[in-house]
Design a protein that fits this description.
The chain is α+β, with helices and mostly antiparallel strands. The protein has helices at residues 2-31, 35-80, 89-102, 134-145, 164-168, 185-191; strands spanning 106-112, 116-118, 121-132, 151-160, 172-183. Mean pLDDT is 79; it is low at 190-194.
């Protein structure tokens, strides 16, 4: 019987060894990273990093474009956004006369009015009267608003034409007060401003 027990013990030992080896193999198989899963995760992370790097490059390019645009706008503002030291009266009224003629209007009156002075601002006012059709007057007023001068219409009165022939022809009179603005003498002379 001693031989049978030995064989049984050996079978048990071999069976235990095989079971232990199978458990250790299963543990190692589960614990060690699989090559496929690791490669897939690395590829996914690489794609995320590349996408983030591309977005960063796009953002930097947009920032650079916006910075250049900001500098361009600042330069334009520095050139055109400041009040002139002296209002270009003659030049403005030459442009105004040309606009009147282009819009089919007849200039009736052009007289200087009293200037007004505010802190840092000088307003030179002029009475300006034109005659023409209502649509022509509207185009003329729009053209005034679109000029690049520091000027504005501070008063407007529309009336029938100057004479009976104007009224019969559907002509209207527009009495305007044109205000031209400039920096006051203290600001223009260096007493302040930028």
């Amino acid at each position: 019987m001693g031989g049978t027990n030995r064989v049984t013990l050996r079978i048990i030992d071999v069976g235990g060894g095989v079971a232990l080896a199978a458990c250790a193999g299963a543990f190692l198989w589960a614990a060690l990273p699989r090559e496929d899963r690791g490669i897939h995760e690395v590829r996914a992370l690489t794609g995320i990093i590349e996408k983030a790097a591309q977005e960063r490059r796009n953002l930097l390019a947009t920032r650079d474009r916006q910075s250049r645009l900001l500098e361009q706008r600042r330069a334009e503002l520095a050139e055109s956004g400041q009040l002139p030291a002296r209002a270009p009266v003659e030049q403005y009224f030459q442009v105004l006369s040309a606009m009147s003629a282009r819009n089919g209007l007849r200039v009736v009156k052009h007289n200087p009015l009293a200037a007004l002075e505010y802190p840092g601002l000088l307003e030179q006012r002029y009475a300006y009267e034109v005659v023409g059709s209502f649509p022509d007057l509207l185009r003329f007023l729009r053209a005034i608003e679109q000029t690049d001068y520091w000027a504005d219409v501070s008063y407007l009165k529309l009336d029938r034409g100057v004479g009976p022939q104007d009224a019969l022809a559907g002509q209207r009179t527009a009495a305007l007060t044109i205000s031209l603005f400039a920096a006051s003498a203290e600001v223009a002379g260096g007493g302040g401003g930028t």
